[in-house]
Amino acid sequence: MKHTIILFAFFISLNALAQKQEEGNVTLELEFAPLGSEPLKINSLRTRYFYKDNKALRLSVYAGGKRSSTSSMTPDSSAQLVNSTGNFDFTLRPGVEHHFDVAKKLSPYLGGEFFYGYNVNRTINESPNSSNSIMTMKNMTAKSSFGLNAISGADFYFSDKVYLGIELGFGFIFEGKGKTKTKYENQDGASGLQNSISKGTTTNINWGPNYQGTIRLGYCIK
């Protein structure tokens, strides 16, 4: 019982110190999913700069990828063949927010953001050719996408310059056709195997409501 009272008093003291953002503040955020398999995760790095008490510029950035490979032997076991796949993803989301002073610790806002994305997928496949050497095929597909999003959210400051937030929006994302480059090495004159560059044939437009399935944990670093 004593520990419960101390813990309760601690949160009450934090709540008493709660203070919302001010002009000149810079924030960073981490996504928090208490019921998910990854309670703390980073899908992007998001920062905000409040150039006025109730107006902010925001920027979300993500860059990441992965690579995996497998190896095997040629039928005569004379050489090792390596096949690998990899990808790289980059997104940039600049935007603006207008906050409303409706309560001491609550800061709801409206805003908008622009979306730009770039995705690259690569494969490298090795195989034996007729001259008993190794032929390599390198394949790379790159696509770009862009969009706009109207956003609405709210931040609750449970401590001085530390907050929890939620956000939802409505917008669209357009994905271009993309381009595929294929390059061969040591093809040994194999019929039809020529380096090539081809454009895709399909574009996609996704639109509608969207939301973040996580709680944002943010804090002021300035």
Would you write up a description of this structure?
With 222 residues, the chain is mainly β. The protein has one domain: Porin, CATH 2.40.160. It contains one helix and eleven strands; from the N terminus they run αβββββββββββ. The chain has one helix at residues 2-17; strands at 26-32, 40-52, 55-73, 80-99, 106-128, 134-159, 162-175, 179-185, 196-199, 204-211, 215-220. The protein has an eight-stranded antiparallel barrel. The protein is elongated and about 75 Å long.
Write the layout of secondary structure elements.
Layout lengths: L1 H16 L8 E7 L7 E13 L2 E19 L6 E20 L6 E23 L5 E26 L2 E14 L3 E7 L10 E4 L4 E8 L3 E6 L2
Antiparallel strand pairs: 1-2, 1-11, 2-3, 3-4, 4-5, 5-6, 6-7, 6-8, 7-10, 7-11, 8-9
Tell me roughly what share of residues is in helical segments: under 10%
What's the pLDDT, averaged over the residues? 85
Instruction: Give the domain tally.
Output: 1
Portion of residues in beta strands equals over 45%
User: Strand order, biggest sheet?
Assistant: 1-2-3-4-5-6-7-11
CATH fold descriptor? Porin
Second rung of CATH, namely the architecture: Beta Barrel
